Amino acid sequence: MATVKMIRDNKFPSAGALMEKVREARLNNVPTAEEAWTEVIKKLDPYKAPTWSTKTIQEAVRVMGYKSLCASEKPSVDRAQFFKIYNNLLERNTNRTENEIVSQLVGGISAKIGQIKKLEN
Questions:
Q1: Are both 70 and 21 inside the same structural domain?
Q2: Whole-prediction pTM value?
């Protein structure tokens, strides 16, 4: 989707600009740290096992400890810690996705070069 938009808007997009569009498109449906924290606060109940809207929220809660969050008496400290963990997880996931995209692009280009070389021989 990002590639199509970039090509439509700019005949020769730079790799950096293309990756930025991919990042923007990917993050459009991802909750912000504030939205994720609001979800966590609403679902804190020591007697229920919640389900989370995203794996990133689930992982951030796991890192912090669900039972610890339920029993905490310092919500402002928990909020700050959650934001840091959540944003770090988002950044890690974004980097992983970008690396996979670049790897696929490079692999596709390498395959095309191989095909061209076979045709030339």
A1: no
A2: 0.66
